[in-house]
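Quick start: what a row looks like.
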Amino acid sequence: MLRQRFQMLCKCVGQCTQLLVGIPDYDTYVAHITGTHPERVPMTYEEFFRERQASRYGDSGTRGMRCC
């Protein structure tokens, strides 16, 4: 039981750290899409990464750097 709690803590810390530096969690995205929107096909990791990068920094550099 203590080991499971430690593993969960490590996973949460890892996810928080990735979000702080701007790396979204693909596994969380896939779980959300398959659970909430079963009619949709999840993006591949490459599509997901490009979409998140475009959302954060702008499409093809046209909107400049964004933080929100």
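That is the whole record. The mean pLDDT is 83. The CA atoms of residues 15 and 25 lie 7 Å apart.
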